[in-house]
Amino acid sequence: MTTLQDCQALDAQDALRPLRERFALPEGVIYLDGNSLGAQPKAAAARVAEVVQQEWGQGLIRSWNSAGWINLPERLGDQFAPWIGAGAGEVVFTDTTSINLYKVLTAAARIVRADTREDAPGRRKLISERSNFPTDLYIAQSVCQEYDLELVLLEPEEIAGALQADVAICMLTHVNYRTGAMHDMAAVTAAAHAQGILCVWDLCHSAGAVPVDLRGADADFAIGCSYKYLNGGPGSPAFVWAHPRLINRFWQPLSGWFGHAEPFKFVPDYHPAQGIQRYLCGTQPMVSMSVLQCGLDIYTEAEQFGGMDALRAKSLALTDLFIQLVEERCQGHGLGLATPRAHAARGSQVCLTREEGLGIDGQDSGAYAIVQALIARGVIGDFRAGSGATSQDGKGGGTGLHKDILRFGFTPLYVGFEDVWNAVGHLRQVLESGEWKRPEFNTINAVT
Ligand SMILES: Cc1ncc(COP(=O)(O)O)c(C=O)c1O
Question: How close is the Cα of 54 to the center of ligand 1, in Å?
Answer without folding.
Answer: 32
